[in-house]
């Protein structure tokens, strides 16, 4: 198997979800750092337009969205299990809670006065203005509104309190061992904790903080730095494709030119030839670096696929 390459930036919370999972699996992986905001030409050369972070590359196969990335990692390395069969529904529910409700509640908290001051210290006023404009563009379309302070203030405290209560008598959210649920809930907590201006929002939740320390102690596996040109060369030089899941019946036939786009936010469309649609995954093929074919994989949930021109 070709090595896992993660295209990410250090401060990306969704990247931390994947980095923590890689650590739990004790996997070796290669790191390509990408810009925090658009433009991201080296990334888009692989994805065809998808801009959200992170993206995972294995040879000339490109995986978008952390839900799909996590399940691909689970398939490649099932031990220790991150999605135990006995807890599948609970993992899915808590992943949705972490990735959506908790993350979206954490975002406006970053812009409370003390949090904003910390961001200005890190990015500068101009850098922060560019970051905010980029994220406004991210939420400009799609069916998820950009979260605001009122949403954060209503959702964040009760969510943190519920997690703290659940962690009072157990090490991890579903028992003695971590699962993908832990990594999906951890990344918004990690995001808040990483901003010194608002980290004290977590002080009232000692069980949550102790759990976050346990997740952090897992680490990130064995990371090796790579640059974008090297990642592109790997895509060009790889000859094999990664296995595809079993196809299911669909109105669009393989070979159809299609567009695929997220429906929630970050809705830039990617165009290519449909390779396959499975129960949970859809795959298109397009020209990547040096006109080499690459396959881009998307989850079916929260993404739409249409014949190009429809």
UniProtKB/TrEMBL annotation:
**Entries under InterPro entries matching the protein:** Glutathione-S-Trfase_C-like, Glutathione-S-Trfase_C_sf, Glutathione_S-Trfase_N, Thioredoxin-like_sf
Q: Which PROSITE patterns match?
A: GST_CTER, GST_NTER
Q: Which domain of life does this protein belong to?
A: Bacteria
GST C-terminal domain segment(s): 84-247
Q: Supply the Pfam families for this chain.
A: GST_C_2, GST_N_3
Sequence ranges assigned to domain GST N-terminal in this UniProt record:
2-81
**Protein's name according to its UniProt entry:** Glutathione S-transferase
Naturally occurring in which organism (per UniProt): Salinisphaera dokdonensis CL-ES53
């Amino acid at each position: 198997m070709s090595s896992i390459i993660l295209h990410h930036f250090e401060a990306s919370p969704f990247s931390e979800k994947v980095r923590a999972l890689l650590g739990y699996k004790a996997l070796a992986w290669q790191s390509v750092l990408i810009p925090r905001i658009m433009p991201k030409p080296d990334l888009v050369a692989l994805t065809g337009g998808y801009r959200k972070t992170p993206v995972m590359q294995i040879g000339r196969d490109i995986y978008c969205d952390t839900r799909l990335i996590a399940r691909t990692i689970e398939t490649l390395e099932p031990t220790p299990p991150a999605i135990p069969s006995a807890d599948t529904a609970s993992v899915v529910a808590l992943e949705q809670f972490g990735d959506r409700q908790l993350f979206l509640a954490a975002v406006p908290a970053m812009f409370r006065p003390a949090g904003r001051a910390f961001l200005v210290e890190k990015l500068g006023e101009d850098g922060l203005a560019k970051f905010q404009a980029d994220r406004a563009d991210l939420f400009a379309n799609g069916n998820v509104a950009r979260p605001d302070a009122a949403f954060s203030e209503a959702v964040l405290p009760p969510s943190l309190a519920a997690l703290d209560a659940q962690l009072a008598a157990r090490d991890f959210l579903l028992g003695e061992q971590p699962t993908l649920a832990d990594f999906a809930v951890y990344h918004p907590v990690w995001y808040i904790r990483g901003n010194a201006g608002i980290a004290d929002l977590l002080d009232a939740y000692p069980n949550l903080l102790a759990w976050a320390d346990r997740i952090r102690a897992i680490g990130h596996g064995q990371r090796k730095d790579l640059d974008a040109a090297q990642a592109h060369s790997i895509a060009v030089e790889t000859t094999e494709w990664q296995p595809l899941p079993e196809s299911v019946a669909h109105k669009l036939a393989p070979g159809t030119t299609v567009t695929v786009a997220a429906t929630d936010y970050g809705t830039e469309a990617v165009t290519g030839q449909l390779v396959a649609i499975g129960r949970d995954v859809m795959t298109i093929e397009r020209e990547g670096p040096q006109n080499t074919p690459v396959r881009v994989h998307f989850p079916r949930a929260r993404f739409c696929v249409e014949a190009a021109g429809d």
